[in-house]
Write a structure and sequence with these properties.
By secondary structure, the protein is mostly helical. It has eleven helices and no strands. Helix 3 runs antiparallel to helix 4 and helix 3 packs antiparallel against helix 9.
């Protein structure tokens, strides 16, 4: 590989590793529901950034459905004034995810999805290790993790991360990063649903929050229906 290719793989690893760190940090200082709802703004960010990165015209429908997500986000902001910092962290986390997808949308033109994923995960591993080393996390704490939790960590690392990593990079050959990000906006829907089942009252939010999340979901469904009608 050329130095430019290695740099791009390193950049991808850097973006996704910091995204992961901020994602779990945001959950720690707020809630799963809040963090996942903010991640739904990815489609809005992509609708503005993708044309700039790929030098293509802006698409009105993408901006419209993206702005619908802003309305939902505004409602969530209105009732979560005590969590402004967590919202800010989640927005930065989301931006890194969007930049990561845009970068991979460029890399997939010349490299296989496995190749991209392999090097980005390797670089991401070293970057996360570097962050852990200089944070308050002590390696002795890792030794106290139970066996069952290591099983869950393995599942998260292999199936939910490594496999999803390769698969998401592969489908970027056939869809745009915008379509990828707005499809991922469904993640908050089932994520919030399961968080309510698993964590119960800790994850309960006010009615205005769910109205905001519903408006964001409306933007996702609207984009899917628009693209389906356009193809058919």
């Amino acid at each position: 590989f050329s130095n430019s290719n290695l740099f791009n793989f390193f950049l991808g690893g850097l973006l996704i590793s910091i995204h992961w760190y901020l994602f779990f940090y945001s959950i720690k200082i707020s809630s799963i529901s809040l963090t996942l709802s903010i991640l739904s703004t990815a489609s809005l960010m992509t609708s503005f950034l993708e044309p700039l990165f790929y030098k293509r015209p802006f698409r009105i429908h993408e901006l419209i459905f993206g702005l619908i997500a802003v309305v939902g986000l505004a409602l969530i902001f209105g009732i979560e004034s005590e969590n402004y910092f967590a919202i800010f962290v989640s927005l930065i986390c989301t931006l890194l995810s969007v930049l990561f997808s845009l970068l991979n949308g460029y890399l997939i033109k010349n490299h296989s999805s496995f190749q991209i994923s392999f090097y980005e995960i390797i670089f991401g591993f070293f970057i996360i290790s570097f962050i852990i080393y200089f944070s308050n996390i002590k390696f002795s704490m890792l030794m106290s993790v139970s066996f069952s939790n290591w099983v869950y960590i393995f599942i998260l690392g292999s199936l939910c991360t490594a496999y999803a990593f390769v698969a998401s990079n592969y489908i970027l050959r056939f869809i745009t990063p915008y379509t990828m990000m707005i499809s991922l906006n469904l993640e908050p829907v089932y994520g919030i649903f399961f968080s309510l089942i698993i964590f119960g009252e800790k994850e309960y939010m006010g009615i205005q929050f769910y109205i905001g999340a519903g408006i964001i979901l409306l933007g996702v469904i609207g984009n899917i229906v628009f693209k389906y009608k356009k193809i058919s």
